[in-house]
Amino acid sequence: AQKITQTQPGMFVQEKEAVTLDCTYDTSDPSYGLFWYKQPSSGEMIFLIYQGSYDQQNATEGRYSLNFQKARKSANLVISASQLGDSAMYFCAMREDQTGANNLFFGTGTRLTVIP
Amino acid sequence: GAVVSQHPSRVICKSGTSVKIECRSLDFQATTMFWYRQFPKQSLMLMATSNEGSKATYEQGVEKDKFLINHASLTLSTLTVTSAHPEDSSFYICSASPGGGTDTQYFGPGTRLTVL
Questions:
Q1: Is B25 a residue whose pLDDT tops 80?
Q2: Nearest to A102 among B32, B101, B112 (CB)
Q3: CA pair distance A37, B66, nearest whole angstrom
Q4: What is the pLDDT of residues B43-102, one digit of tens each?
Q5: Across the interface, do B112 and A106 touch by the CB < 8 Å criterion?
Q6: What's the pLDDT score for residue B103?
Q7: Nearest C-alpha of chain A: how many angstroms from B107?
Q8: Is B95 near chain A, with CB under 8 Å?
Q9: Quick check: A25 and A4 in contact, CB under 8 A?
Q10: Residue B20: partners with Cβ closer than 8 Å, 6 or more residues away
Q11: With an 8 Å Cβ cutoff, are B109 and A101 in contact?
Q12: How would DSSP label each residue in chain B?
């Protein structure tokens, strides 16, 4: 089974509008971390936001917020006030803490295009 | 903070030659670094976990004799693609974590390998 599922291959959003990128995960580990990364066309992976499985509040970082719904095993990324520079691939990833390996499992990504 | 560099950013080589890619954590020490591979329009796939002072841990299906990993110091890991073939052409990206509560992984800018 896929550990991370991103069901939206591509999304479009009007500049200055908000957009939600979906991510669901599958794990039996009680302790885990969820991450979102942005990958522009240059290829680098840029860390955006982190949510720990025991965090009570949803994580926020500037225009990025993570809508963490533990019971539904979802960790959607919300980008507010979209900018043209937000156009990129976005990857959701998970780390399972019990294994101690610290490696990340990535979803297949969502390509976001911001329309002027 | 948490900057990871990779060198070279792009390399083109002839089939049968070996290519070395360096991954450095510039402002933190990393006992563990990770090497990923990304095919066009696909997600990142973990190849191996590089451990300082010990042997790397390879994921299933990754040939350890072909992809040699050396973690010489707390700030440097190298990936050598030996006897490269066209099917090894890919985007190789490393990551490292400075540790701490979230264990966020920070990625290098990636290396695009083209084998002719």
A1: yes
A2: B32
A3: 29
A4: 999 999 988 888 899 999 999 999 999 998 999 999 999 999 999 999 999 999 887 666
A5: no
A6: 77
A7: 6
A8: yes
A9: yes
A10: B78, B79, B80
A11: no
A12: ---EEEE-SEEEE-TT--EEEEEEESSS--SEEEEEEE-TTS-EEEEEEEETTS--EEPTT--TTTEEEEEEETTEEEEEE-S--GGG-EEEEEEE---SSS---EE---EEEEE-
Cα(A58)–Cα(B94) distance, integer angstroms = 28
**Which is more confident, B7 or B55?**
B7
**Residue B61 structure tokens:** 């299906």
* Side-chain-facing half-sphere of A93: CA atoms under 13 Å: 28
Phi and psi for B46 in degrees, rounded to 5?
-70, 130
Give residue B104's pLDDT band: very low, low, confident or very high (50, 70, 90).
confident
Interface test with A, best of B6, B7, B69, B103 (most A CBs within 10 A): B103
Interface test with B, best of A42, A89, A104, A108 (most B CBs within 10 A): A104
Residue to test with chain B: of A29, A37, A45, most B Cβ within 10 A = A45
